[in-house]
Design goal:
single chain; mainly alpha; three-stranded antiparallel β-sheet; two-stranded antiparallel sheet; 12 helices; 10% strand; disordered C terminus; DUF2063
Length: 289
Amino acid sequence: MPTLRELELAFVRGMFDATEVAAESFVCANGMAPAARLAIYRNNIVHNYREALRDVYPVIERLVGEDFFRFAADHYIPCHPSSQGNLHGFGGEFSTFLEQFPPAAGLPYLGDVARLEWNWHESFHAANGSAMAIDQLMSVAEAMLPSLHFQLHPSCRLLASPFPVDRIWAANQPDAADSVTVDLAAGPVRLLIRRRGDAMAIEPVGDSEFALLTALVQNMPLQAALDAAQVVDANFDLAAFLVQRVSDSTLAGFIVPTSTAIGAAALPGRGQRDQRSRLQKRDLSVNRA
């Protein structure tokens, strides 16, 4: 007599591999062959997985066609079954799968288009974030500024690609003109994907800002994030960045470390005091607008 775990494992294997027959010995015929009973379950499960992928990746399906998409999905599903009951989390590895799928080798941009769609999907379903005010930042002691850890809005996602995936995505929306063409040599792109209220947005960002945002996502303190930005652009304007990204809620908050070694570290440029002065002036101009 099999244990419950052995029975469950045999059933799961049978759901994703029609040649796996171990589960059939545990199923009563009762007017229908065990293989036929299991096939009903298998077909329903695979159908639900396919539909979940279609919901997340409509642009991919439009690019490759319905038949190829189904073909790719049927190869993907057995290798990457959902690890949770909520299918919102299913399909996250599809971009990497497409890059490694030999029949799709002639479409090198496909993986990054899939990453854009997955980021869109995650952003759409992300939690609502709290807003912060620039006054909160102004209340922090100057010596603590380099060590602040900023938090992005929960819906924010970053994507870098050598291909113009934002234009490919836009050209394959239901309301796009049929005559739109995309120059694949028009990349690379650095994108911020996020939700603004109830609306979704895909925003191109500059290389230096992308470097800073990436560092913040990696939980680097402000000083290290600014260093990353200034490797790309020595004249990166931190004050302008903070005002813009606080006002549009890309930055949702920050953490002040409980203990910080304060010494040689200082925001570059003309010093922390100058950065704070410029931040105040920019904040006043925003408030008047």
